[in-house]
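Input for the complex:
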Amino acid sequence: MATETMKTIQLIFGIINLFFITYLIGYSTFLFLSSVTGALTLYNRRKEILLNNVSNQDVYVPVTIIVPAYNEEVTVADTVRSLLNLDYQLYEIVVVNDGSSDGTAKALIEAFDMKEIGRPIRRRIACQDVESIYESFGQKIPLTLINKKNGGKADALNMGINASNYPYFICMDADSMLQYDSLREIVRPVMENEHVVAVGGAIRPANGAIIDKGYVKKYQLPKNILACMQLLEYERSFLAARILLDKFNGSMIISGAFGLFHKETVIEAGGYDPTTMGEDMELVVKLHEYCILNKRPYSIRYATNAICWSQVPERLRDLCKQRRRWHRGLIQCMKTHRIMIGKQNNIMIGLVSYPYFMLYELYSPIIEIIGVLSMIGAYFVDLLNVPYMIMFFMIYAIFGMIMTLTSFFSRILTIDLTISFEDMMKAIGLCFFEIVILRFIMVLVRLWALLGINKKKQNQWGRINRSALNK
Amino acid sequence: MSVQLLVYIYLFVSVSMIVFNICHVYLYNSDDGTYRRRSKSINKIVTDQILAIEKGESLSEKQIRMITRKCRNMWFLDAWDDRVTLLSKDHEKAVQQYVLIMTAMFRSLSVDMKKKPPVQQAHFAHVIWKYSIAKNDPGGMIISYILSLTSSPNLYCRENAMKVLYAYGNVDYILQALDKIGYGDTFHNDKLLVDGLLTFSGDHEELMSRLLEECEYQNDFLQQVILNYVRFQGGEYRDYFWNILQDEEEDDEIRFIAIRYFAKITDERAEKWIKNVAQHPQDQRWEYAAISAGSLGAYPGEETVGILKQCLCHGNWYIRYNAALSLERLNISSRELEDILEGDDRYAREVLEYRIRMRQYEKESKEAKR
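Predicted:
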């Protein structure tokens, strides 16, 4: 009897073992392919720029930059000031103040001598009512401030789309800064392919960097350890994964901090969904779905050299809050848009992107926790070789570190940034802690989100403590 | 066993990645290092050659062959370009002569370049454009190479080749190139072409008339490019555009260009037509009325103001907005618009008030700047 029970236990652990081997091989392959593809893509892009493979696209793609703002009085004027200095000719800026309770509107009105004006706005996408509109007349770039009733970030973006005068719009955060050439870079895919409906930009943590009028004056790793670990994580995910997914039109996320969209397609698809927490991912998935269902040729691209500098949380509490919100957004999005699997005109999204996000993002906390629990179980029934397990984890950690460092150094090399030897050592050292500690904490945070804890706080602005940029 | 296999796989991939990283960093550094090394060697040669020309000496065939051999490598060509640009500031005439002599090198390179990757070919075309090399080789190998590039699948090859052709100023070549791009398989942004045509260095009148001769036989894409070019260039082809306006069978987008043309080049026949369309908008074809309302700003007069006021009260947002823009363009005073500003139509009032207020603020801002 005991032997039979043991056999059953062994069988169960054998199945679990097999599952995890397949799971990890899948993830490692993805990570490996994405790191290599990312590094090579950046290398080729640098070569193209050096060899004058560029065109003057700044007059052909007029762009509206929409800056949704909620209680951003500290950063909003600096953000707009930096936007006014971009190396691009034809664009306008629309700041949507989503019922802030602080002096966001006042800060802008005073900084740019804005005048109240009764501008009629055609509401093609539903959104909360306008309270007042201000425009600036002394700037070389048209600047509009729309004060509206509070409705959340998605609602503010929808208002910005309604007010936009140009065929393409960019969404960004009020606490972010665009690099001087970012608009030129983000519209490149639109010039190359008429079917491009959205382009994602690269987000780089601004903590530690000094950026003046869109130019990086000084670059060093953030002093804050948590921000530094996030920087490494950003490089891995933005550089690696997104470039690979971009190769087969499989991008499912364009960060809310910097993305370009074709206005008409977004309006036809229904705009941002104000009922979801991850409005940025939801819109991209919705665009895929809309174009697939309507049999429209389309392309969603990622512009590796279009850089947006954004502040990342420096406190663990803020980071957990942010990631919980992201994961809840992911859950809502994956539930709503299951229809895409197996659709004919973009098979790759159904066969690769969607399952990837399902297995390695959405359900990964559960899978990883099961893995840990099964190891504990295996230890108690004496099926676990502890030294072997430690060796395995060490190798896994080294593997992850190498992938992260590949992405990190590729980026540093290709955008001609120089970092000190100290920072280099810091990156190598922190890489290990990012993989072993930060990732584990994030697994717990995502598990928390997945289990539906703290459900009430939906559709609000994700708030983290921020300081003025460059300080 | 399976776990062991996994460990080995990880180890293998980790080692491979380290090797990949080393190669990657080496490639970067070697690119930069090679560039620096090659720059150094080519800088001396180019400087010596230009200084020799300045002294009135001539370059031997051997010297030209030597530099041609080096410039087959893109980094050498890039370094050559950088050096010539630098020297042109202080030795302008000598550089001009030098570039003329170097046409032989470009002729030879245009044969080799056909086998190179698109990124290098686009760069080569850019250098040809920068130094107007093609002009030194009329009807020769360089221009036929450039023409072949206009059917490349790579956008930057096509675009840089077109830049050479615009600067060259030959109508026949432009026609050939447009044909290749217009009927090619890859997308080329029409605005890039229109804007490029406007920079044409030859006779615009000849180009416009030759393009219009062919226009009706072209596909919709090329027709739009040609008509938009003529519109922006302001060519006097009223009859041509009038015929398009009248042709109900014609594609809508083409007819929209014709309406916009008459917002720039006025015509009595077109005025009547535009007024009629703006006055009697059709729900299914509201775009005609919207564009017409926007074009009426070019036709001052009481009748126009009356029609525009009528358009201001239309249910379609674009018709209303364009009418307000036209009234603004016609510089109509607030007094003349009292009936709208004090009328019951809230939408008409709002859009008009907005434009008037905007104009006032803009004026104030300009005065404050003075």
